[in-house]
Amino acid sequence: MSTRLSRRRLLGGLGVAGLGLPLVPMLEREVEGAVLPKRLILLCSANGTIHEQWKPGFDGTTLQLSPILAPLEAHKQDLVVVDGLGWRYDDGPGVDHMRICMLWNGTPMLEGNEFQNNTGDKPCGWGAAISVDQFIAGQLGQETPFASLEFGVQNGGAHIYSRVSYAGPNQPIPPEDDPYAMFDRLFSEFGHSEAELARLRARRQSVIDVVKGNLDGLQTKVAAADRLKIEAHLDAVRKIEQRLDSTVTCEVPMLGEQFDPSANDNFPLVSRLQIDMMVMAMACDLTRVASLLWASAGSNIRYTWLGLETQHHTIAHDSSEPARNQIAAINTWHAGELAYLIEALKAVPEGEGTMLDNTLIVWGNELADGWTHAQQPSPIVLAGSAGGALQTGRYLDFGEQRHNRLLVSICNLMGLPEVTSFGELDDGSGPLELG
Amino acid sequence: MASRRRVGDDADVGCGTRGVLASIVALAAGCYTGVGEADGDDAAVDSGSASAADDDGGSESGDASELCADPSTDTSPLRRLTRSQYDHTIRDLLGITGNPSQQLAPDEKVGAFFSNASAPVSELLVEQYMRVAEDLAIEAVANMATLVPCDPAGADPSACGAEFVDAFGLRAFRRPLTADERADMIALFEAGLAAEGFAGGFTLVVEGFLQSPQFLYHLELGLPPTDAEDVVPLDSFELASRLSYFLWDSMPDDELFAAAAGGGLATADDLRAQAERMLDDPRAGEAIASFHMQWLKLEKLPALEKSAVAYPSFVPELRDAMAAETARFADHVIREDDGRLATLLTASYSFLDGPLFALYGVTPPADHDPMEPVALDPTQRSGILTHASLLATHAHVDQSSPVHRGVLVRENFLCQQLSPPPPDVDVVPPDLDPNASTRERFEQHRTDPACAGCHELIDPLGFGFEHYDGIGAYRAEEAGKAIDASGEIVGGDAADPAFDGVIELGQMLAESEQVRTCVAQQWFVYGFGRTRGDGDDCSFDAMYTAFAESDHDIRELLLAMVATDSFRHRRLEGGP
Question: What whole-number distance in Å separates Cα of residue A271 and Cα of residue A273?
Fold first, then answer.
């Protein structure tokens, strides 16, 4: 079977709701065998939701979308709304917003004092385990130049609040907040001629050889605790090296007019640009696994484009009715971003359907409720069927269960049936019954 | 080896700080998370302060010096250059100015200060290092004439390339290359030379150096241990780098390299002499500015946004002038004025430019030079606590914030960490009210017992700042009422904790042993890029003593710090 993207359809598709960004890939990729590649996209937003405005109705056949999920109306047959999961957990280091990493790794943070300010009475270190996207990237990501890509929108500094993807214990992966830098990372080599490309690769290879030698030489010289840092560095260099020979061809997209990606009011523009690039990277098969973090845990973004001047976290700590409605409005906006992502994936034809069919999107939140800081019931929305593995168009309420089961299900849906538990808090009850 | 007990470890030491701590904890149970140190031992941190801050000096007996006879320090984790260290190093190494590090993932912090001490690099960061290095190498071609010590067009380009590798390598790795490193880099040069000529070899070598761990990390291996000691001296090139990154936020200069090569950094006095020279260099001003931007939590100032309705005058030029004021002021106080902490906290002059004159209500002098001090109204402006940078950053978009300002003083001047509010309380600033002052609107903190415990430690400090609005403009009244800026340093060490306005607060903080110890502690964390541990007590006591004996001259604190055992040694992990 061959997949061929027509230039025109992509133009029409990816331009749908966004910046009119002329994203024009030239995907001429032969897909070998009958099985199309699966993709995983994890989305995370902050400060919790308003459960009663999030929970949809479901009569057994049709979803009646809630106010927050209303922007997804056109795609409700592609959704599974998952209720009743969470990571209620009172022991261990860190509290509340610091636990954002638990969303995707299901494991309490490391003991430590790296993060102790403004975090409550229990300090902690970085996340203590690999996140589910990185686990899957490690299993499935070998065929693409990037095993995974991490996108961010105004995450700010290196903090436990602003990291959701982990390569392992104490190995947070910074998301790229700058869409222009992400563009360079993904596409800057595509404009080169074959000769230029060959020259660049040869130069990079020769530098990498020296750098690897220098790192190797340090392994035995530095203290045992520091050796992990050198190993991680070496590992990163090797991954970049492996990518040197990748032969994906994709026409370089054009970027629109530059803006400041760190200015508060440009948050929606950055979000769209990052989503565009994520879809583009997947359409070109640069990667099959991606995560996106909208701001950080306890986000202080001001959603001025919704008429909200007060910082998000501040609103979340206001229990008044108007403030609760504002939190709902913020979540509704994020549902709209998910709708945009779904539309962009649907615009890329693949096999008999579209790229969405072969994708699993998981949208989660660091908290269930920003007012109480509860982490249960966590508002989870799945979209796409992961190549037909997931029956969509449903609402499932699991009562009160560990969300580690969801992490197991993600692995299973992505084609790793052997995974039966994920994360330290897993209680051994296996994947969710997704029917 | 005698087990080292520090002076303040005994619970019965009659120490002001410990007593204060106990009273704070009693006052606000559950609100106080301990002193801002990460060794997990509450007593440890302020025991250092206890001994140093001991009023009668009696505890500094012969016992203490005996305990400190053998060099001691704590474990120092492998750290990567911070962004600003990267930028300054690139400037001094390649002659390229700008902020190339903005393309790198952000820095971690230790305490208030940037330091990449915990997490290893990610693939993204390593790729960023690669791309930045490639761009810089191309830019550096323009400076090739100054970087290459021979004629690239001469008869023997290979020999010239080798000369370049030696000269550049010393500066890039901040020590002479080993034979293996040299051979690798020469081979890299030859590969580039063969393919693309001299510039091709030059750029490849630059890329190779800039991506190597010897450049990107503060590698401190120390001298080989001679016996069973677990503390070993750093070698002279490692000391040169410690000096330069501490005092300049950048790589060593030629004189430091020469001193390192010629045995000129062998003694504590040698280090002090170098440090004195270095403090006279403008680069020290940058490090001092960098320290204060982080200590005062001003990192967000360059991108600070305010409500255009509440503060239409808050334009980027004003914001930039605010940042420049604090940077220049701190540099001036420490390097050009008397260097005293009290001056930093109480001086009634500052450095104004552009729209900052209007904000401060000062008429710009004719032929104004922004590098020259301007006298300010001493009833309105007095030291860094009255800088608009601090006041605007620690405020809301449309109003002041007694809470943010109070927290800054409590945590970063008194070194007492606070917990955040519990999740189920409203933390929204009270709505603006044309008929009520900020103080009145925040009264709920006092009346609601759920808030009062913690806010008793915060608000009475923060109310002292109420003469300054959300962008730091002075105001005599708010909502038609005269400002009430009376406050109290709850749990402080002043006999009379009450004050009226931030000018009095600054004077009290300048006299407080808690604050002086805290400032020394902040410089320690900044300079070492790590938390202070048990093994650092003797060193901390030594630097604090020098600080105290010089009437709290920050220069003396810095000069004493470079002469300490902690500065000159490394602890072997897992040693005996």
Answer: 6
CA distance B517 to B547: 9
Query: What are the beta bridge partners of residue A382?
Result: A80, A362
d(CA A300, CA A293): 14
Mind listing the pLDDT tens digit for each residue in B225-282? Answer: 777 678 999 999 999 999 999 999 999 999 999 999 999 999 999 999 999 999 999 9
Long-range contacts of A61-66 (CB under 8 A, 24+ apart): A61/A393, A62/A393, A63/A393, A63/A394, A63/A395
- Return the DSSP state at A295: S
Q: Express each pLDDT in A189-224 by its tens digit.
A: 777 788 988 999 999 999 999 999 999 999 999 998
Specify the pTM.
Answer: 0.87
Distance CA B90, CA B100 (A): 8
What is the Cα–Cα distance from B4 to B47, expressed in whole angstroms?
13
Burial A199-235 (b: 16+ CB within 10 A, else e): eebebbebbbbbbbebbebbeeebbeebebbbebbbb
Name the closest residue on chain B to residue A218, using Cα atoms.
B213
Do residue A229 and residue B121 have CB atoms under 8 angstroms apart?
yes
Question: What is chain B's percent helix, strand, coil content, to nearest 5?
Answer: 55, 5, 40
Prediction ipTM score: 0.87
**Spatial contact of A105 and A129, defined as CB atoms under 8 Å apart:** yes
Please check whether residue A71 is in contact with residue A332, taking contact to mean a CB–CB distance below 8 angstroms: yes
A222 in contact with B, Cβ within 8 Å = yes
The nearest CA of chain B is from the CA of A237 a distance in Å of 7
Residue pLDDT, tens place only, A50-85: 999 999 999 999 999 999 999 999 999 999 999 999
A23's CB contacts (< 8 A; 6+ apart) are A10, A11, A14, A15, A253, A254, A276, A279, A280
Residue of chain A nearest B131, judged by CA positions: A185
Helices (H), B442-536: 444-447, 449-462, 502-511, 513-528
Residues of chain A contacting residue B311, judged by C-beta atoms under 8 Å apart: none
Yes or no: say if B47 and B86 are a contact pair by the CB < 8 Å rule. no
Tokens of A357: 């069919």
C-alpha atoms less than 13 angstroms from C-alpha of B345 in its C-beta half-sphere = 22
B441: nearest Cα among B410, B484, B409, B407: B484
* B464 and B412 Cβ atoms separated by less than 8 Å: no
Retrieve residue A176's tokens: 């790229």
| H or E element that contains A41 | strand A39-45
CA distances from A260 to A163, A265, B102, B316 (A): 22, 9, 13, 14
Radius of gyration, CA atoms only, chain A: 21
Kindly tell me the burial class for residue B98, based on how many C-beta atoms sit within 10 Å of its own C-beta (0-12, 13-18, 19 or more). exposed
B93: closest CA among B281, B252, B231? B252
